[in-house]
UniProtKB/TrEMBL annotation:
InterPro entries the record matches: Cyt_P450, Cyt_P450_E_grp-IV, Cyt_P450_sf
Keyword Iron: yes
The name this protein goes by in its record: Cytochrome P450
Cofactor(s) this protein cannot do without: heme
Residues engaged in binding heme: C299
Pfam families in the record: p450
Family: Belongs to the cytochrome P450 family.
Sorted UniProt keywords: Heme, Iron, Metal-binding
Amino acid sequence: MDILKRSSKVWISELEANLDEAWAKVEADVSSKGRAKFVNPLKLCMFKLLIKCFLGVDVSESPEIAESGVSIVDIWFILMLLPTISQNVFQPLEGIFIHTFAYPSFLVRRGYNKLADFIRTRGHEVVQRGVTEYGLSEEEAVHNLFFMIGFNAFEGFNLLLPDLLNQLLSDQTGLQDRLRVEARQMGGPVLTFDSVKQMPHIRSLVYETLRFNPRVPLQYARARKDFRLSSHEASFDIKKGELLCGYQVLVARDPVVFDDPESFKPDRFVGEKGTELLKYLIWSNGPETGTPTESNKQCMGKEYVVLTASVIVAYLLRRYDSMAGDGSTITALEKVK
């Protein structure tokens, strides 16, 4: 949380600078090839942003990390999660060969060590703050920073942003036109975290994307004490020490709470009724109306996620008069004149 607070002054300016670079690449590809993939430019944009904001350094200081950092984190992330994700192949082969054992660390060790060394040397000031202010060893500080940047932040955004832009590109019922008016008329001439707080429909699009496709579908915990767990229809006695699993997809599509839960409704969280629904949106390992603490394990960067995603949507709608595409591909862009 300390790092997030310290980075808040440069977060938006760095984000916009990196977005300018990423979408200039997309525009060039659309112009020359008639279509462009936006996922990789967006990944590089977010990687550069997070390195700058978390470590206080420009990733270009290491050409090797600038070129391979994204793939290093992606491979590490995939191999870490692969044993937990269903691959929809014939059982029991999947269970035996994919979900029975941890993958050997040598598969990612070389790349991991390169990025860890970059954090240790280039981010020395931040690492030492972990040592002197929080009592961590240098190695603990480095690996915690790696995990926070790579898993919590970078890959979290990489799961959210393509889904979010896909919904924007689908342009259901004139969505782009409605949001474009809000993006250009609200919040003043300069985008900030405060300005997008004045854009309820754009934030609702982000919230609905998080509801419709939660980033972390399964969550586990052990009961700290005996208690009774109640649903709409039943109650269950839970004993201290029992392992609990929450399936967020089921909660996010609860028909008792959400009207027509299987449909994507970008305006679901607008207005008084929509604001009331936020206490049932738990994408961040807790209610959207909750506050992260040391004991509740709620995502400490949840506000940054929603506001950053909202800034990206507002940025695109201010930059382009129209956008078209599908999935991860842009097929047409009309830049504002």
